[in-house]
Amino acid sequence: MRGKAAVAWERYIEPSGWLDQFREAAAIAFCLLWAEFQMAPRQFGAAKHSQMRGYLSDLGLMGNRQ
User: How far is residue 13's CA from residue 48's CA, in Å, rounded to a whole number?
Assistant: First the structure.
């Protein structure tokens, strides 16, 4: 990965320590969506927001809501 996708990987995926072959594709897809959002947030449609939230949830990156 390059650019903003690599930054997302380093910031969110690497520290998690749980990545395995079953979640790798979701992690990659999340990073690519994150990079796209960072580059053009106004063009990032609702469907892509939903996808990104789904990946965040699947990867356990949503945090604790109280």
Answer: 19
CA dist list (Å): 48 to 6, 21, 35, 64: 19, 24, 12, 22
- Are the C-beta atoms of residues 34 and 5 closer than 8 Å to each other? yes
CB of 35 closer than 8 Å to CB of 4: yes
**SS3 (DSSP) at 39:** helix
Per-residue tens of pLDDT for the chain, all 66 residues: 899 999 999 999 998 878 888 899 999 999 999 999 999 999 999 999 999 999 999 998 887 655
Q: For the full predicted model, state whether its pTM sits above 0.90.
A: no
